[in-house]
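Quick note —
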Amino acid sequence: MPGFSLTIATTTSCFHQAPATIAPAQTAVTILGQPVATSSSQIGVVGCPFTLPTATPQPCLAITWAMVSIKVTVQTQPMLLMPAPNSGIAPGICKGAPQLPQGPAMVKVNQIKVFAT
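Predicted structure written out below.
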């Protein structure tokens, strides 16, 4: 599925609105001066307030991204992509320490100049 490429400047958050940061896995290819995010990029979440009804904290710690380019790679790694606006939720899954899914990721700001498949 085609989509807009993510960069380390993409503003994301977990389902519970805690900010997430995309760590650069490469610096060779940039869009608008920001390194492109690839499948080897780590997306970390900081400050998630999620707590289960039993009062056990289960904060989101990372986001696993499911949508990658099937045609464009950067240093042999596929680029992370975001669907076009109004085409549904982001293809990222927020996960806590035991790697259990806790909801979809939210993309708040992303570049819209580079579209890939």
